[in-house]
Amino acid sequence: MKRWLPLLLLPVMLALITGAQQESDAAKAAKEKKAKKDAQQAKKGPATPPPPLEPVQPVLGWIYPAGGQRGATIEVAASGTSIVPQTVLVTGGGVTGKLVDGSTPNKVRLSLAIAADAEPGIRELRILNSGGVSNRFRFMVGELPEITEVEPNSEKSAPQKITFWMATATTSALRPRPA
């Protein structure tokens, strides 16, 4: 019986080996088919994403300058996400805004008219468009004239000339300062 046992197990072992080989051939064929399909899609180019269901909500990142003198009309640059406004909202009264240039969706120029009788203080500026209302951004209405920093003015030999005795200096905090 011991001599016949290997002969009895031999067909079973051959069946197992053949089945495993057939399975690996099927897996190879499936991989080749998937690779062909991927190559065809790569030739077509990337799939275009579906359009958003809702417009993107506007988010203000910064405005510059962040203040103005009563009785003046100033141009403000604003940056953020999806901020081309249908309406410019300013709290507190005495300040109205409108779009000057909205050719790019993430950077706009606004015109803010500050009434001569506007109460000095902090206002909240927001953008309203089809995506909704943006976050608030602080805007200061003051009584003193605004002076916008002009570069270069870092050297003592070539300072920026200031013609007013009292004024509010407006500078960009986003620009790195020289050491």
List the helices and strands and how they pair.
Elements: H1 4-44, E1 59-64, E2 67-69, E3 73-81, E4 87-90, E5 95-104, E6 107-114, E7 121-129, E8 132-133, E9 137-142, E10 146-148, E11 168-170
Parallel strand pairs: 2-9, 10-11
Antiparallel strand pairs: 1-3, 3-6, 4-7, 5-6, 7-8, 7-9
Under CATH, the homologous superfamily of the domain at 59-170 reads Immunoglobulins
Quote the average pLDDT.
Answer: 81
* Total DSSP helices: 1
Strand content: 35-45%
Give Rg in angstroms: 35 Å
Low-confidence regions: 173-179
Essential attributes:
four-stranded antiparallel β-sheet; disordered C terminus; 179 residues; elongated; five-stranded mixed β-sheet; Immunoglobulin-like; 11 strands; alpha+beta
What can you see in these coordinates?
With 179 residues, this protein is α+β, with helices and mostly antiparallel strands. The protein has a domain at 59-170: Immunoglobulins (Immunoglobulin-like), CATH 2.60.40.10. It has 1 helix and 11 strands; from the N terminus they run αβββββββββββ. It has one helix at residues 4-44; strands spanning 59-64, 67-69, 73-81, 87-90, 95-104, 107-114, 121-129, 132-133, 137-142, 146-148, 168-170. The strands form 3 sheets. Strands 2, 4, 7, 8 and 9 form a 5-stranded mixed β-sheet that branches. β5 (95-104) and β6 (107-114) form a beta hairpin.
